[in-house]
Amino acid sequence: MKPLASPFSDRTLDVQTRSEVLSFRKEEFEVVYHYYEDEGHEFTTDEIDSINLKQVYNLYREKHNLPFPETIKAIREKYQLSATKMAEVLGFGVNVYRQYENGEIPSQSNARLIQLASDPEEFKKLILLSGVLSGKELDKMSSYIDELIQTQKNQKLAQKEQIVKYVLGAESPSPCRLNGYKEPSLRKTIGAICYFVDKLNPSKTGLNKLLFYADFLHYRNHGTALMGLEYIAIEFGTVPLRYESLYEFIAQKGHIERKPKEFASGYIGEVYNVLKDDASSFTEDELATLTMVCDSFQNKKTREIVEINHQELAWKENQAKHDKIDYKYAFHLNL
User: I want to staple 165 with a disulfide (CB 3.0 to 4.6 A). Which of 85, 125, 170, 324 is the partner?
Assistant: First the structure.
C-alpha cells in the first residue's frame, strides 16, 4: 500500500499491521489488521478497510465451506444463463443473487443450493423443479446439460486413468519390453504389495526388490509380467519407476498403512501394515510366482535382499545411468 500524507501532521505515514480479532455474524476471526497511526491517532482508509474485511470474509467462507464470488459466477456461466434466469432457477431474488456474485456472503442454506447447482445432474433437477424454462428452451437446456454430464464423466475417467498411469510409472504407451508386454494393472499391483507385506513384512527398500522379482520372474516363466510395472536401477537396487508415489497412493486408498521404523543400523526406513487386501485378482500361475518370491526371501533382512539384488545383471548394467530395465534381463535372474 502506498504511503499516506498524515491529516494530523506534515509526516508521510507507512501502513502498520498487528494481529487483531474482528467479528462477523457473531463469530470472531483473527486477521492481520492494517492501519495508520500519527500523533496518537489511529485511522484507516476505505482501501485498508476493504483489506481487513476481505480477510474476515475469506476466513468465514473457508470455515463454513461457502463459495467465493468467482465460483458462483463460474457456475452460472457454465450453463450459459443470465443472472436473472439463474436467480429464478435457484429461487433467489435477482438482486440477492447479483450481490452474491459481487461479493456478498450467502447464507449457508443458499450457499449449499449454489454448490448443488455446480453438479450438472443436480442442476437439471433444479431446472425441472423450478419450471422457469419450458418448450424448446427447456429442451435445448436439457440437451446441453446432458452433454455437460457426459463430458464431466469422461473428464473424471480420463483424470483417474492419468493418475493411475502416473503412479504405476506407465510411461510406455503400450505393452513393450519395458513393462513386460503387459498393460500395467493397479489391482494386481495392490494385491502383490499387500501379499508381500502380509507374508514378509518388508521395508520399503525390500518391497521394491520383491516387486521387481515378481514381475521379472513371472515374465521369465510365462512371457508376460505379473503387474506390468516399469523399473529403473538406482543406487539401492532395482525399483519401480515411481515407487514413492505408488505407495503413497495405495496408502491413501486405504489398502496399506505406512509407518517409519528405526533399524538396528540406525537407519530410519518405512514398513507397512495391510488394511484392505484383495488377492482374488490373481490366477493360479500368478499366485505361484508370488509364493516363489516369498519362499526365496523368507527370513532375509533388507541388507541381504539388496546384496542379492546387486548381483543381478539387470542392476549391474543399468545402475550407472539409472536406466529403465528391459525385461530381457528376466532370463538372467539369479533367483
Answer: 170
Question: Which set of grid coordinates corresponds to residue 158?
Answer: 480420463
pTM of full prediction above 0.90: no
In angstroms, the Cα distances linking 79 to 95, 114, 154, 232, 236 are 19, 13, 18, 47, 54
The domain over range 4-64 is classified in CATH as 3.10.20 = yes
- Full pLDDT tens readout for the chain, 335 residues: 788 888 899 899 999 999 999 999 999 999 999 999 998 899 999 999 999 999 999 999 999 999 999 999 999 999 999 999 999 999 999 999 999 999 999 999 999 999 999 999 999 999 999 999 999 999 999 999 999 999 888 888 777 778 888 889 888 878 899 999 998 999 999 999 999 999 999 999 999 999 999 999 999 999 999 999 999 999 999 999 999 999 999 999 999 998 887 766 666 778 888 987 766 679 999 999 999 999 999 989 999 999 999 999 999 999 999 999 999 999 999 87
Whether residue 299 contacts residue 283, with contact meaning beta carbons closer than 8 Å, is answered with no
What are the residue ranges spanned by the domains of the chain? 4-64, 69-162, 186-332
